[in-house]
Amino acid sequence: MTEVQFLPQFPLTANPLALFGGMLLSGALTGELVRRVLNLPRITGYVLIGLTLGASGLDVLDARMLGYTRVFLDIGLGLVLFELGRRINFAWLLRDRWLAAMSLAESMLSFACMFGALRWLDVEPLYAAIAAAIGVSSSPAIVLLVARELRAEGQVTERALNLVAINSVVAFVLTTMLLSWIHREYQAGWFVILLHPLYILAGSCFLGLAASWLALKLAGWLGKRIELHAALLLGIVVLLVGAAEALKLSILLSLLTFGVLIGNMDREHKLMPVDVGRFSQIFFVVLFVASGALLHIGDLVAGGAVAAVYIAARFVGKSIGVLCFAHLSGIRAGSGGLLSIALLPMSGIALAIAQSTGTSYPGFSAKLSVIVLAATLILELIGPLAVQFALRRAGEAREE
Amino acid sequence: MPAKWNPELEFKPSRELSIGVELELQILNSRDYNLARDAGDLLALLERTPHPGAVKPEITESMIEVNTSVHMKFATLRAELLEIRDAVSKAAAQLNLRIAGGGSHPFHKWSDRRIYPTERFKHLLSVYGYLAKQFTVFGQHIHVGVPDGDTAIHLTHALSRYIPHFIALSASSPFQQGTDTDFQSSRLNTVSAFPLSGTLPLVHTWSEFVAYFEKMQRFGIVESMKDFYWDTRPKPEFGTVEIRVLDTPLTVERAAQLAAYAQTLAHYLLMQQPLPTSDDVYLVYKYNRFQACRYGVGGAYIDAQTQQRGTLQRDILDTLELLRPYARTLDTEAPLSALRAEAEASKSDAAWLREAYQKLGSLNDVARRQSEQWMGSPLNA
Predict the structure, then answer these.
(1) DSSP assignment letter at B298
(2) Chain B touched by A229 (CB under 8 Å)
(3) Mean pLDDT comparison of B220-229, B270-279, B350-359, highest-scoring range
(4) Does any CB of chain A come closer than 8 Å to the CB of residue B123?
(5) CB B87, CB B51: distance < 8 Å
(6) Percent of chain B with pLDDT over 90
(7) What is the spatial distance between Cα A220 and Cα A223, in angstroms, rounded to a whole number?
(8) What is the pLDDT confidence band of residue A240, given thresholds at 50, 70 and 90?
């Protein structure tokens, strides 16, 4: 048989590149189909094809297969967070303090409402708190992508993105702090309880800071050449994702810090406004196909009712927080309501947090997933629609 | 058949030599300093904030127009412009926007623009197609008050000789769509594309003008005075002559100085009546206008009356000299000497923008500097 060794061996082993290409292609095609036929956002199509191919459907994209694409997903996530971070402008938050107040209010009130609702449903305090903390964050990827797809621009879009960035950080800090609570629940030592969150928070922020410093130094040396700056930023984003992973730090916080600081530290305007999103689109498609594949329709049956209450409480909390400050922070009447709607999508990052907690403390994850995963599933499907509705209604989409 | 009485053509007298300014301004985002689309939110916020003058929408969502009230003195006009600037800047900063002067945005793409949703602007889009979006250029209009329609017609013709002065002194649109146009004021090329641009026809009295207008109306070419995009036009509704060739300067200071120049010049022209209205001015008009757009004060200038060919710089400096006594009576000596210094040094906003590009290396930075220049202190507050 030696003469046919050049032929492949069957069954074929999964190839990450073929998988990436397949997911990209199926996602892009379904996204376009969904847009043309149903006039829905493309993202809904990506999630739907993910659901179809994933555990709830044909089970082609199972956890093992998705493991092969992990690296691409991390890059996609890194790019989303970096781009989101770049939208945050400290000077703006200082100038429009009501916006800053709004962001804290909607984060805190949504946490309180979700926690209250879950306690009312007799969920144990620890699980209620973690689920509420996870729910504080709106999905950076969904809001950013729908805004990009609609080429939306304006006060609702900009403010939604700033609020999303801030509530993602709040959610992350809350969950990280609650991690220590889990440690206690699982009888970890005090040393671990204190040091683990501290390591993640300080380490990730430092990593983002170092990357910003490096990027600005190099940008100054490169001069004003947009293509060089694009390579520089993409390089550092991917490097940072890898470094965060290797150092067991948070990709979310590192990349967000990098995005935020690079803009706010650049006092001499050395860095050119590179549109990283143009390069990121392909990773985003795969990211959403994967998040669709990870969702289980079964969760909906198990946790649907609790999830509905959880979503309602979340929406109420966010809306009150936003509406209280909408008028004061200078936007038009009606924009506050649209802003609340735009914050509806829940983060796929919730999924990641729920699962990473699961890997450290199996058993805990199962309890949590009933609440969070069902809500994520619902909001991954409704969320893009909500954002599309809000941005179109605000007159900020660029379709005529 | 007599045309029906048209209230729009009734010339409402106003105080001779009163002045007012309109400025079309750029709304930029603070991320890459491209044009933003937030006119609606900015106008709504300004409606809730007390400020002098008026703020209005313009043809695309990336523009706003600010108007001063009527002034007799340069000093009060300047003060009001500064107040308006501060109010607009503060509101813009609250929305994380930037406001900039300059006749053109250096790198926006016209196809990205969106028409501001009013009936009139939608109508303009349906009539003019892409020209409506390309009309996202930014001008300063100066109104000079006149007592009656005949004087308005006279002054409009008399000013035409000086139109290149205003173009050169305000020129601030060297870049368009990401490219250096080689012009000092490229904005006027955009205006020239409109079929009703150009100049007032050679009518000599207000009643001749009304007859002309009604004929154009019967042809179905125009519906209202607004349809004429002339360089200088009588504005019966305000009782003024409106000079429309200026680029919005980079600062309100400069805008006020140019208004002072128009006021002083009008004073001289109405007092001295130095020029009989003649065809010859319009024979050289387009040539002189082009030279001013292309080369600014460095352009050539043909004096139709003396039939001499010289430079625009010389003609501006000679005119400023001639105006000295009139400047004294109107208290406009300071702004005029500021303009003189600029003209002597061949400086201009267009040159400033080109230098900024040389130094900073990107048009995003040019737009950023443009907004810092216009907004001044409120941005740092």
Answers:
(1) G
(2) no
(3) B350-359
(4) no
(5) yes
(6) 86
(7) 5
(8) very high
Residue A50 to residue A27: CA distance in whole angstroms: 8
CATH of A40-192+270-393, one of 1.20.1530.20, 3.40.50.10420, 1.10.10.10, 3.40.50.300: 1.20.1530.20
List CB contacts (< 8 A) between A153 and chain B: 29, 36-37
Helix (H, G, I), strand (E, B) or coil at B297: helix
Fold held by B7-379: Creatine Kinase; Chain A, domain 2 (3.30.590)
What is the rounded distance in angstroms from the CA atom of residue A56 to the CA atom of residue A61? 10
- Asked if B359 is an interface residue toward chain A (Cβ–Cβ < 8 A), one would say no
Q: What are the structure tokens assigned to B336, written together?
A: 């005029």
Distance, C-alpha B161 to centroid of its chain: 16
pLDDT for A72 equals 85
Give B21-47 pLDDT, tens digit per residue.
999 999 999 989 999 999 999 999 999
- Measured between CB atoms, which of B94, B361, B368 is closest to A223? B361
Within 8 A of B117 by CB-CB distance, chain A residues are 395
pLDDT at B1 over 50: no
Dihedral in degrees, nearest 10, Cα atoms A170, A175, A177, A180 = 180
Where do we find the tokens 């499907």? A381
**Looking at chain A, which residue has its C-alpha nearest residue B365?**
A269
- Cβ(B120)–Cβ(B56) below 8 Å: no
Estimate to the nearest angstrom the gap between the alpha carbon of A331 and the chain centroid: 26
Q: Does A83 touch chain B (CB under 8 A)?
A: no
Q: Do A396 and B32 touch (CB under 8 A)?
A: no
CA distance A334 to chain B (A): 11
Structure tokens at A5: 């060794």
DSSP string, B107-135: S--GGG--B-SSHHHHHHHHHHTHHHHHT
Can you give the pLDDT at residue B358?
95
Alpha carbons A232 and A217: distance in angstroms, whole number: 11
Q: Cβ–Cβ of A330/B45 closer than 8 Å?
A: yes
Of the pLDDT bands very low, low, confident and very high (cuts 50, 70, 90), residue B5 is: low
Compute the nearest-CA separation of B54 from chain A (Å): 19
d(CA A183, CA A209): 28
Cβ contact, residue pair B94, A330, below 8 Å: yes
Contacts of A336 in chain B (CB under 8 A): none
Query: What pTM, to 2 d.p., does this model score?
Result: 0.90
Of B37, B94, B362, Cβ closest to residue A153: B37
Within 8 A of A155 by CB-CB distance, chain B residues are 38, 41, 95
**CB contact (8 A) between residue A96 and residue B94:** yes
Q: What is the pLDDT of residue A400?
A: 46
What tens digit of pLDDT does each residue of A310-362 get?
A: 999 999 999 999 999 988 887 887 899 999 999 999 876 656 655 555 556 66
Helix and strand numbers (H, E) in chain B are: 15, 13
Q: Which of A226, A272, A332 is the closest to B41 by Cβ? A: A332
